[in-house]
Structure formats: C-alpha cells, structure tokens
TrEMBL record:
<dbReference type="InterPro" id="IPR046451">
    <property type="entry name" value="HgmA_C"/>
</dbReference>
<keyword id="KW-0812">Transmembrane</keyword>
<keyword id="KW-0223">Dioxygenase</keyword>
<feature type="transmembrane region" description="Helical">
    <location>
        <begin position="7"/>
        <end position="28"/>
    </location>
</feature>
<comment type="pathway">
    <text>Amino-acid degradation; L-phenylalanine degradation; acetoacetate and fumarate from L-phenylalanine: step 4/6.</text>
</comment>
<dbReference type="Pfam" id="PF20510">
    <property type="entry name" value="HgmA_N"/>
</dbReference>
<keyword id="KW-0479">Metal-binding</keyword>
<protein>
    <recommendedName>
        <fullName>Homogentisate 1,2-dioxygenase</fullName>
        <ecNumber>1.13.11.5</ecNumber>
    </recommendedName>
</protein>
<dbReference type="InterPro" id="IPR005708">
    <property type="entry name" value="Homogentis_dOase"/>
</dbReference>
<dbReference type="Pfam" id="PF04209">
    <property type="entry name" value="HgmA_C"/>
</dbReference>
<keyword id="KW-1133">Transmembrane helix</keyword>
<feature type="domain" description="Homogentisate 1,2-dioxygenase N-terminal">
    <location>
        <begin position="27"/>
        <end position="301"/>
    </location>
</feature>
<dbReference type="InterPro" id="IPR014710">
    <property type="entry name" value="RmlC-like_jellyroll"/>
</dbReference>
<dbReference type="InterPro" id="IPR046452">
    <property type="entry name" value="HgmA_N"/>
</dbReference>
<keyword id="KW-0408">Iron</keyword>
<dbReference type="InterPro" id="IPR011051">
    <property type="entry name" value="RmlC_Cupin_sf"/>
</dbReference>
<keyword id="KW-0472">Membrane</keyword>
Length: 467
C-alpha cells in the first residue's frame, strides 16, 4: 500500500509538472482588434496564400468563416475570421433543448426592487458533494433588454468545481466578458488556448466555441452584451496612450487536436436565452490555422494605466473604463467595464473616497480581491452590489467620518485590491436566483448608511479642519 501511494504521488508530480510546463509556455499574439494570422506549428503553411477559400485547402482542411459583424459594416467595425479546420462546425447531430439551470433572460421573474442591493460572496458548490462545470455553474443575476433585437445585457455569476471535459459552449446571443475571481481558467477555444487568472479578464465573442478547465473551486463574474462588441474607449484629451493600451490585449495562437469522439462530443449553445446541446464525433478544437480580427482575447488588469486627479476633486469614474460596449447613442454604453485599480490619491482639499451620488446608469460592482475603499466591511471578494438608476449610494458612515478628518498626504489607494463595475445605461432587473435562491442577498445593507448624522452648523460656515 505504501509503495502504491508513492507511485501515485510520483505520477501526480509528473502530471503536475507537465501541466505547469504547459501553462508556463502559453503563447499569445498581441494587440486589440488586430488582423492576426496563426498556424499550429505542426502544420506549417496551413493558411492559404493570397485567398481565403481555395478549391482545396492546404492539408485538405475545410475553410470556414466566422462573422462577428454584418458583412456590410464599415471597415472600422467589420469583424470576421477565417478558420481552417479538420471538419466544419456544421458536422453535428441536431440540437436539443437541455436543462436551463439558473440561466435566464426573463427579466420579470420577480417584482422590481429599487433598493441598494448587496450580495455576500456567492457560494461555490463543493466538488465532493456535486460536480459542477462552467456551464452548469452559470447563474444569471440581473440584466435588461432583449436578445432577439440584439440590445441588452446580462450579469452572470459562475460557480464551478469541475472541468468541462468533452463539452464546449458557444453563445449565439452575445459576447461574454469573463472576470475570474477565484481559481484560474484554462480556456480551450477554436483559436487556441488561454490561461486566465484572477486579476485578468477575457472576452469570448459571440459564436466562438470554448471549453473551460478549472483546478479548484472556482468563481467569477460574466458581463454578457447582446448585439455589440467591446471596444477600447476613446481617449479624448488624454491623447494616444493610457488606460488599457491596445498592445496588452493577448490573443491565443492556433492549436488543434484531432480527437475523434465515437461516444460524442457535446456542443452546448445558448440561443435566444435557452440552452441546447448537440453531439458531434470530433473535438471542436480542430482549427489548424486561422486569420482575421474576430478572436477571443485576454487582458491583465495590472497593465491598466490609471488617470486620476492631481489637483483637487474627482474625475468621474469613466476614467477607469477598460472596455466599452457602445449603444447607438453617442457616449451612452450598453455596458462599460470599469476597474478601481491600485493608485495614488493626492487630491488636495478634497473628500477623497467616491462621492455620494445618484446615477442615471445601473452600477453592478464586484470585488476580485482586497477591500474596497468606500466600504471596509460587507462588500467582500466574490460578492457584489447593484445600485440601480437614481438609487442613492456612497460611502458608509464610518468611511465618511474618517475621510472627512483625514490628513491629506499623498497615499496609496486600493493596494492589493481590485474592484470593478459593470455600468449600464439599461435599467437592470434582478432574477429570482439573485434575490432569493442564491440566499446571498445581504438584508442589512441599508444599515451601513443609517449612522450617517447631520453635521450642519448653521452658525459657522467654516467646518473644522482635519484632526
Ligand atoms: Fe456609484
């Protein structure tokens, strides 16, 4: 028995070493929205030269175009890629409806609730009790709009403990911006593999097939947008550089497996908000080469170049926008992905935490790690909050008292912390899972503002200075 355990341990070490070597050698192309070309090095010359669709492709591959925009979109927004694969995606049995789990696009499940909402960390099921993969672990928390008219968004929480194995997923409804919070994701895509760790994000665009391996109990957030793609925000007077720089976005390189699956590989599709599954006889990751500008990509939030006030007052949090999914109204987003990274706070004569406000936008916030400055307790990694249009919010009473008296020396803000916001111009509804089934809603959230007291001094205009 003792020997047996030693052998197992040795084998485990070898597997672990191989895995570590694989993960360390992940390769990427770089640049946001670039025209890229990639061939699996096992098949040099797999990309046809000078044309997209030759009569016979190199290595007898099939050519397949994946369109991410209308054919006639202007060049600046036109997105498509050409995939050269062992079998075309159409080689599958018919799709059939499967259990929806907690995925929904029904925004009328429960009555609207204008209150400030906050969730404790969403619970991840234990692998020893129930095996849950990335897709069966999707839970829709809130959202708005209409999938069929390509206008809207959803916020999902993923809670999983098992790799997808011989299952992949693709979304006919929109793009997924995935924010892992606990546990890394090894994501197989038709374009190659990406390792996405907490404090990194990735975007899997509409139609792209992917499968997620996880290595522990894993949790994260997803922003889904319908009918639009994420773009880098315009920089205006900031100039040519800053915020998320295009070169820091990483794209996988071509990688294929020629894996025949007599028992069937399962392709799961989210279509008009419902889940369907079909079997096929080969792994979908059979793309030997590809070229184009419609790809998955990832980004490390540490690379965000922060702009901030160096005199007094606050710039609006739009300065922290990483990616935006624009609506047809100029300057108004279906959703912005905004982060609050580590930075210096140096503003003079200023109340430095976020100001009290009411916003015409919906603000969903999550915390990847650390402590958010405006709420020291209660808003925890893996939890969330939703402040709906015109719902007032701001620092809790303790934060107000401390910040009003703090000595305004330059100070580090948010070291070891990464909070983020999905901000939308749409008024989001919360799902039944969000309000009830998850059992994570913090019923006492409103109490953090109850100790706020009046400091009004009608006889004295000049307030007392810092202690
Ligand atoms: Fe806010």
């Amino acid at each position: 028995m003792h020997v047996h355990i030693e052998i197992l341990t040795f084998l485990d070490c070898q597997i672990l070493l191989l895995m570590v070597l694989c993960l360390c050698h992940m390769q990427y192309l770089s640049g946001f929205g670039n025209e890229c070309a990639s061939e699996d090095p096992r098949c040099p010359g797999a990309l046809p030269e000078g044309q997209n669709n030759p009569q016979v492709c190199p290595y007898n591959l099939y050519a397949e175009q994946l369109s991410g925009s209308a054919f006639t979109c202007p060049r600046s927004t036109n997105k498509r890629s050409w995939l050269y694969r062992i079998l075309p995606s159409v080689s599958h049995k018919p799709f059939e409806s499967i259990d929806q789990g907690h995925v929904t696009h029904n925004w009328d499940e429960v009555d609207p609730d204008p209150n400030q909402l906050r969730w404790k960390p969403f619970e991840i099921p234990k692998a020893s009790q129930r095996k849950v993969d990335f897709v069966s672990g999707l839970h829709t928390l809130c959202g708005a709009g209409d999938i069929r008219s390509n206008n809207g968004l959803a916020v999902h929480i993923f809670l999983c403990n098992t790799s997808m194995g011989n299952r992949c997923f693709y979304n006919s409804d929109g793009d997924f911006l995935i924010v892992p919070q606990q546990g890394k994701l090894l994501i197989y895509t038709e374009f190659g593999k990406m390792l996405v760790q907490p404090n990194e994000i990735c975007v899997i665009q509409r139609g792209m097939r992917f499968s997620v391996d996880v290595f522990e109990e894993t949790r994260g957030y997803i922003l889904e947008v319908y009918g639009v793609h994420f773009e880098l925000p315009d920089l205006g007077p900031i100039g040519a550089n800053g915020l998320a720089n295009p070169r820091d976005f990483l794209i996988p390189v071509a990688w294929y497996e020629d894996r025949q699956m007599p028992s069937g590989y399962t392709v799961i599709n989210k279509y008009q908000g419902k889940l369907f599954a079909a079997k096929q006889g080969i792994s979908p990751f059979n793309v030997v080469a590809w070229h184009g500008n419609y790809t998955p990509y990832k980004y490390n939030l540490e690379n965000f170049m922060v702009i901030n006030s160096v005199a007094f007052d606050h710039a609006d949090p739009s300065i922290f926008t990483v990616l935006t999914a624009k609506s047809v109204r100029p300057g108004v987003a279906i959703a912005d992905f905004v982060i609050f990274p580590p930075r210096w706070g140096v503003a003079d004569k200023t109340f430095r935490p976020p100001y009290y406000h009411r916003n015409c936008m919906s603000e969903f916030m999550g915390l990847i790690k650390g402590h958010y400055e405006a709420k020291e307790g209660g808003f925890l990694p893996g939890g969330g909050s939703l402040h709906s249009p015109m719902t007032p919010h701001g620092p809790d009473a303790d934060c107000f008292e401390k910040a009003s008296r703090a000595k305004l020396a330059p100070e580090r803000v948010a070291d070891g912390t990464m909070a983020f916001m999905f901000e939308s111009s749409l008024s989001m509804a919360v799902t039944k899972w969000g309000l009830k089934t998850s059992n994570c809603l913090d019923e006492n959230y409103y109490k953090c503002w109850e100790p706020l007291k009046s400091h009004f001094t009608p006889d004295s205009r000049n307030p007392a200075g810092p202690d």
